[in-house]
Fold these 3 entries.
Entry 1:
Amino acid sequence: MDQDGSYLFDEDFEFVYPFHLGRSIVKQKGRWGVVSDTGFVIPPIYHDVENYYASTDDMQDAGEQAGFYIVTKVDYKPILRDINFRELKIDFDRVVSKDEDLLLVEKNGRSFLLNEELDLLDEDAVKTTFIGNGMYFQKEEKEHFVFDLNGNLKCSTSDYRPYKMIFDNYVLCKRKGKYYVFSIEGDSVCQSKSKKFQLTAETAFISDGKKYHILLKDGTVITSKKNLELLADNEGKFYGTVESGKVKIYNTTGSKLFTVKTTSTPYLVNGRLIYKSDQWMVLNLSNGQEESLEEELSDVEVFDQFYHLITFKNKKQKLYNNQWEEIKLNKRYRIKYWEEGSLLLQSQGNYLLYANGELVELPTTWEIIGPSHFGKIIAKENNREFFINQKGELLFGKTFEKCSEFNGDAAAVKSYYGWTLINEKGDYLHFPCFGEIMNATENTFIELQRVTYGIFDQNGNQLLAPIYQKIEWVDKDLISCLLDGQIVYFHFSDLLQNRKSKSLQF
């Protein structure tokens, strides 16, 4: 209360320190914070807050006297923040799972579903699972219910467990190891108890060993009662059937385009049919033109619609782009697909990047450890991680202890002091003092704070970042700090002179 006996706060405190320079350390519900005569300066969320009174010669010369507070971070409490480290006021214990547009968190054993704007969709969920395309399902007793990202109920699939969304209008379900397909309205599309399933951009193929169904994106279902082998083009514009050495090619309206005979396993890749008659042939399904392959084919590996690799029986390999143009390789490399339009090649520990029609050989001391996102690839050398571009050039001119992939406009990196975020220019967005940072939705991150100490003045200005395991005053101007087993000393007068002008945002 103030001097006339009026209450300053309508709050209950478990412990209150005497006011000093307009501030008091208080304990509320087992946690510590700092209040002024108008309210909280530091919220009561910390394990401990220690008040250090300081009156150095420098401060006396400046006509100052102040109290300084050592606070601790919350012990491994996950906090959701945006790329500017503004805390998003969502209380949760852990992240259960995430989808491209949805985030599922748990609090006290209950699930809370958030959309990409972090709006709460359903606070009463008990068990939620994502199935893609912004859809999720919940189970009540034996019945499954499918919802869209706005929380609208779309359909019920009874005791069939939703497994995956097909296009935007169909739900692939599983029961006892077999597949079933329902429309988003809950109507059964495929009645067969399917054992095999394959999905491309335009078509879904379902087979039960006796007949097959081809579900087109417009909802058309093509069914055959024959037990045929299916070929699915990765572009989704064509499909084929194989029976007794005869290959039939159809477009996605079900019209038959070509019939050829083959004496070996055929492949349907990037709008081409690769098959063997007297020799291996490549049939362009768009215009019907054929060309021959001079050598015996052993295998075809598809990286997606952009690249595929042909291996011949003499172990020679040829790499083609989606226009069927050969990419010349000097050696035999193991090929990994990393990002649209770029490839990583590896041979006996040596790496090459192929992007924009160019091959770039990387230093032999580099190890590629992370996928490329937004044209940035994570590499490693001498236990330090860093980002390179598709030309193999070092980005930002700096290395880190750990890197994670870019999530929108920022990436989480770890330095000696802890985790923080960097922007697309490589600039730190915050002092690296966090225990761990994980991607949530785009441009949103989950931070796990650790119990560490820092020093703030009564206005919340940071004097020492909260990264130390212990802080002690040796004398009035000397501070000892414990950091990862090492003792570091600071002169308090130096900290005062170098204090940050911008207050921390709590």
Entry 2:
Amino acid sequence: MRKCFSLLVLLAVPAFTTFAQEKKPLVNRLVDLISAPTPGLDPGAIYQPDPSWNLALTGGARQASIAQKQKLDIHILGEVIPASLNSRLKGDVDPYVGLQFGYGNLTLSYSQNIKKFSSHDHTTFNFDYLNAGHALQIQYFDYSQPMKLELEMWGEDSENYKSDTGETNKPVRMRAVIADAFYAFNRRTFAFSSVYKGNKIQCRSAGSIMFGTKFILGLVESDPADIISLWTGGVGRQTSTQAAFGAGASYNLVAFHRQPDPESMKGLRNLTFNLTAIPMVTLFNKFSSTFYDQDVSGDYYPASKSTMNGNLLVNYVVRAGAIFLWDRYSVGVSGSYDSYTYKGKSDFPLESLASLVTTTGSFSRWSSSLRFSVRF
């Protein structure tokens, strides 16, 4: 996981080639990334306050889910039986609270679901670098929820058709690192970060064509002794790695703006809305399953692994938000929806039990947030 995460960050760096052109010491360039004003912006379109510390309280709701269908031929006593296994992990709609803290363009945040209203745990950490023309957002979330299962044998048209449903006895744990990088081609009159952070203030309406990349490292783990292992032939761990690239558009609509005093920020009034939509093509899509077996003492160990390279697929990112700023304070609302799918074929590790497996799956996540922030 650490090697993949390092590769993810290295791959995201080319989206910010503007900074590599400056021949400054590394420390100076890092300071500029955090706090220096963005060069080339039209001051009549975007107001840049001096960099400052900011603290924000957040709250909202979110939901994540995974759905997967595997088709295979099961070998039982010399008979080949067509079968399909449907698994679904659909989380509750989680109300959550969180805290954000940052300086200049950087923000770190943590959020936790309110357990009184949830039947599981859901923790999220975020690292955001948001500038006017580009952004890097890295999110890690850890999520546990029982998984629902449905096994079908023979086709529905067959007189031998059988279907059975169940649920894991223990929660299935889902973890993921998701990194999004965005680049705005309008680097003079448009500030992508204005609505989602407020460190740049959009003075008049503007939009831009956007380039976006998304990297996903996902891990789903279940207890090898649970019912899901019996139905899947011993699967206890599944990992996914995806890289997607695409282009779309983002637009800031300024409903109201009043310029502040540059030193005290007194008098600032601004209301801005944003809508962003970026279709993406998944160019790299790898999915693997680890099968467990028991040793003589009854302990489970990873016995084999099956790897699937998925097909080329189209996914998308949609975001919307609004922010109201006054003096050194702001209130923002935002919502996002992410979806990615995977599809491919892989060999079952034990040919005596089953044949080629066709897997189709999808992951989706939506969230809404209310953010109250103060600059100091």
Entry 3:
Amino acid sequence: MKISSVSRTLCVIAAFFVTAWWLYPHIAESAHTRSETTELQPLAPPLGFTAANANDDTAFPEEKAGFSAYYRVGGSDGGESEPRLNVKSIADALTSDPGESEIRKAGNLNELGLNFGIVELPMYAAFVSPRPIENVTVYFDDQGWIVAYLPTGKPAAAIWKYKSVGDTTGNAELANNLLVLAINEVLKANDASAAEVGHSAVAYYDWENADCDAFVLFSAVANGGASAPVKFVIPRTIKGIQASAAAVIASDLDGGNTANWARVRVDENEVRATAPNLLAVSSIVLEREYDEDNTLKTSLHQMTVEVSEGESAAGVVMLLYDKP
């Protein structure tokens, strides 16, 4: 497996006016007067990730895992032999009714061993009503490893949790993503007084697309029409890209107007949410052209968010790729 290099910064992700940015080499042009930055995030497999019983194989189900975030809890004395997570207590807590939680519903136990557990958590994917659900699975073991992951085949944009129309940068969206929230649910189940970890404290990896060593997420919002376009350029040096998008109707409907809709458009792709299903997530294909000698051309792409009259919406695009 390839380990990514240190992440770089993408300049200018914004949705108020036309914005253009490069995946690589990270040069941007913009008519926007209030520039925002969105960081390029590295993807790398967890080093030293082995089962608590010290066998060569891990209890972690790699064949079932897609996009993931992981974190390791340290022992209080720094020793490797001290159990760092109480596996049985965590499994019991995660599968119990959490009460009036804004994060999740009661989880389903997938597997429980002497030194590890796997629980599927139904997570609330947006602060809207009715609340849409995305399932995130968490693996945890007594060596302190916590891995939160989407199932194989699930688009990576499904980690997005819509919080508010005011959050219009990829950094803000990632700070609130479902994988980070799921990791914190494990930490809280292990120790109610434990401090939460943030997006910057976890690492990411896509078990299904091991060649991808970087990703970026950016967003836009719309009110009663279409957002300003967000444009991005993919240089010819980037060969393969895994792209996905998510759209949410931001208005609370409570089973109301089923004619409402929201969509993210990326070139000819459309990801559309139609009430009463307020959230839609899908993979998309970015069309790219080739020169006469069959080499890729640099390509320009555009994303917009659109919504039915009188409503508000938000959307994200997530790109995973192999840095040249």
